[in-house]
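Budget justification, computational time. The allocation requested in the original proposal was used primarily to generate structure tokens for proteins on the priority list. As evidence of use, we reproduce two of the resulting records. The first is shown immediately below.
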Amino acid sequence: MSSSIKAGAAISYASIILNIMVSLVYTPWMINTIGKSDYGIYSLVMSFLSYFLLDFGLGSAISRFIAKYRAVGDKEGINRMFSVTTLVYLCLDIIIFVTLAVLYFFVSDIFVKLTPSEMETFKTAYIIAAFFSVSNFFFNPFTGAMMAFEFFVPLKLLDMAQRLGTVGLITIALFFGGDIYALVLVNGCVALSISIYKFVFVKRNADIVIKIKLFDKKIAKSLFNFSFWIFLINIAQRLRLNLIPFVLGIYSGTAEIALFAVGMNLEGFIYVFSSALNGLFIPKVSRMVQENSDDRSEISQLMTKVGRIQLYIVGYIIIGLFGFGKSFIDLWIGNDYSDTYYVMVFLISLNIISMTQAIGTTLSYVKNEVRYNSIIAISASILSFVLSILLAPRYGAIGCGCAFFISMVLSSLLSNIFFKKILKLNVMEFFKNCHFKICHIQFFILVLMLICDNYIGIGSWLNLIFAGGIYTIVYAVACYYLCLNAKEKTMVYEIVNKLKKKI
């Protein structure tokens, strides 16, 4: 991996660890401060708005096309592409604004389970969040631009600043008597500020010229052909998980929404760890395809290499949550949220496969084969949605978690068929050198943890920290001696030596 990718990944992981440590303290305090009902409303508002704030695949399209143009040295193509997307985003922003304004008058007919006071709170939070979301939407392309131009370090630093800035300002606001409206306001202000800075950074450092007169119909057609399928993928992914609070809001109420929202937060920890490397490889894979469009051996090797790294990281967190999750949730949120453990198990189980195959997804973007991804995502999301509607009235959040798990099984099966048949990746070699050589060790450690938790028990934060420390040592030693290959051990040596020199 290049030095920029390594630096970007290192900052990503450092940011994620810091964010999780902050969230472990911040989230339960925030819930207790604003109340379970307001937290459920806050989650419902953000989830509902997310359905209408998709970038329609244009963000991924921008990363893909800029990387492609840079690989062949076409600067004029980059300028024309950005001119097209600027006009498109402006038009979409206007459409989204009108749509959200109209929907405001119908939310009481949609969320019938909310009480009159909860509906009043929802409407006010909706107005604030919608205003900032529409204002922020226009700047979405510049995140993709920073990825494509390989500005990995500043991009990851900005992501860290946004998360820490949001948590810090919300903490201050709530400490001085703020409420749910303060949460929404701070989220919007910080996100908009970061987006504006990204715009300024790209303009100054990428030397991009944006002029409406550079509008190119051919580029626009290629952009829409690609982004349409990405848009369908994004819609499907939103439906698969973020639509569930909407379903619970109709059939179960705010209490079940809050249970599921906490499970989503825990699933989010897994996602951010696994996605730390996502997007960093689009330029690299683009160059590899440009140099040899037919040979997939190098990309298959890269998929295995990156997949193993992801599996070590994702596996560590998943096993930790499975093993000590019940005790952790009771201590972290309270006994009222004990059912969140089962929601979490359903939500994150299949991530141990799907989140280790980012290179396969990246290749589908580079080769413009994303229509298959969209078909898979839509199929899985429809299944998740239908099963959630069937299970939510009786089983609430746990039933919806089960629906999501079943949809992920379908998605994983279809995705690997796609990688093998369409992208010509060596999927069996990937699993042989990745999961088959690592997962059995991880499973054995998980069994030991469950035995310890069931028969010894963890009743305090001190015991949990002590058990977590032992688990970390056992996991690290077992992976080092039983899983790491020669190249990975060399990488560990290099990292340790660099840290020694800096110390």
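The second record produced under the same allocation is shown here.
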Amino acid sequence: MRVMVRLLGGIWLGTLLIIGIFAYVEIRDERHRLTRDLERRASLLAESLKESVEPALHRNSLPAVTRLLKKFATPTRRIAVYDAVGSPIAAAPVPLPSAAIPEVSETLGRNGTVKGLRTVEGVRTYVYVTPLQADDRTIGALLVMLDASHLETADQALWQYHGVRFLAVAVVLSLISLLVVRMSVTRPLSAMAVWAKSLKRGTPMPPPAVADASLFGPLAVEVAGLARTLFRAQAAAEEEASLRLRGESIWTEERLKQFVKLRLGDRQLFVVSNREPVSHVWQNGRVTEQVPASGVVTALEPVMRACGGVWVAHGSGNADDVVTDARGRLGLPTDDARYTLRRVWLSAEEEAGYYYGFANEGLWPLCHVVHARPLFRPEDWAQYRAVNRKFATALVERWRAPRRRSSLSRTITSPCSPPW
């Protein structure tokens, strides 16, 4: 429950942060756009009125100035004219506010246009003041005030829009996350819990499928492997007990493991053969596993599964190098590694000389007492020795690396499949 709360809290916080940043940027840009629009409208109106107001004000014709202001003024657009000392002369459509407009004094003082947003009588207003001139002297100022309350309305509308969008996105992401967690985490863990309870009750059942390793990491693979091991151990124990009741005996995986452990102690088991227990090949653009038809593999692979160890073999598959590490190592079986395969890489010339030549045409007929004359060539012997050296180097490397405290190991070699 706490994990879900933290997950949903993180989703909501992240969504709020992202949408909040984008909302702030959009509202700021929209505010700038609306402000530029007010400025453009105010400047167009003020510059157009100046051409008519300046002559009328210069002639001191107050009725003409008043008619011009009433002609262009609206309830949301207030216009006023001031004299050279900042006193109001005319205003439309309503009288000017009692409070002074600082922009007017600033315009007359520096003889330049002043503009900006301010609050007038409790209403957000855009103020634009430009000087009126005649005979190269300032004779007054023209004030244009545009209602800017829609800026606040636009800001509130955008905040509400982004608020609704935040809620919608957060709810959708939360539902998707809950569904993904349920399908990818809760359901596999529930299946594993059901399996564990069945084992506690003594009811055998297959272990659950391996959870997504990319989500759970190595822990998921290890737990699934442990589940399979416990299931096999329980099945073997039940089989052993049944055989004892009948007075029979059979080699089981656990019995073989204990037998090898009794004989070897802490020494490691090695198998060295030309044939590898599993080869990897490309098929339809994908890497697939193939088990070679070999008596060596059929006889020794179950022993390695039960007892563990290192199998040194020739990597003959065209995709063998794709699935191994830099030293040619691979854990087998791939879904539940119990022993290590160390692949030795050979060139086509080495394989032809040592295996198809010296081994198949020389040693095999000689060892199997077939009615064919063994054929030995000096060049095949040279390749045979070179390949043996490669296998020996790989064996010594794996011999020394994992268990340096052990002085001896037991090595099983294939008698009819060189290089041994």
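A brief technical remark on that second record: The CA atoms of residues 61 and 288 lie 100 Å apart.
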